[in-house]
Amino acid sequence: MRRFIITTLATAMLLSVGACIQDESTESQEADVKGQEDHGRNPDLIDRMGRPEITNFLLRVPFAKDGYNVADTFDLGWLQQRHYRDLISLGIGAWDKFDGKEDWHLFSHQSDLSYTLVRDYLIVDTSKACSVDTESYFEIEQAPLGEHQTCGGRPPNADVIDTLVTLLVGGPATEDRFGDGIDGVPRPAVDTFPYLVEPHPTPQPEDGGA
Fold first, then answer.
1. What are the boundaries of each domain within the chain?
2. Per-residue tens of pLDDT for the chain, all 210 residues
3. In 75-206, which ranges are continuous DSSP H helix?
């Protein structure tokens, strides 16, 4: 399996997606944020675990990112969902160009992916065992209904950025592996409660340093 490493993600995405969404009006974006402020939140919802880097990778408009972050992802209105799905689809299309192939077709696969990503919460199957090293991120969302093999979620040591980049660049059926050039955390989590390791020691200043 070939491995492609993308080394200029931030700059390239800023240019690519920024060009796609330059027609978004400031008035529309500000109205969207105001609508989020007025939107009632579910009092029984304490918090949720969202998917990493969705706003940074796919929502490149600052106003849209703010509104998306404060929205109740379990109760998005129809107009909100359509607005964010449109922006996410633009982001998917920009990432899809990196390998020179169109893997996410606008009115089929891309539409399905944007619908999944706009619902920003992790899905976990507690009936299936997994460890801190299981590469199960986004497996439930990609598998046919009821045919997933892992617990899903986001295990601590899973390389979720490579998984996300591979999905966006390579498409739903790629056998290639794309990534950010970082192949794991320097101090992996352990598989016993509380699943953490000792923090890195505080760097000591050199002689004469501050």
1. 3-38+46-121+159-179
2. 444 434 333 334 433 444 444 444 444 444 444 444 444 556 665 567 889 999 999 997 878 888 888 888 888 899 999 999 999 999 999 999 999 988 888 666 667 899 999 999 999 999 999 999 999 999 999 898 889 999 999 999 999 999 999 999 998 888 899 988 888 778 889 888 888 888 878 887 776 655
3. 78-96, 109-118, 139-142, 160-170
Burial 111-133 (b: 16+ CB within 10 A, else e): eebbebbbebebebeeeeebeee
Taking CA atoms, 108 is separated from 21, 115, 152, 188, in Å, by 21, 11, 24, 38
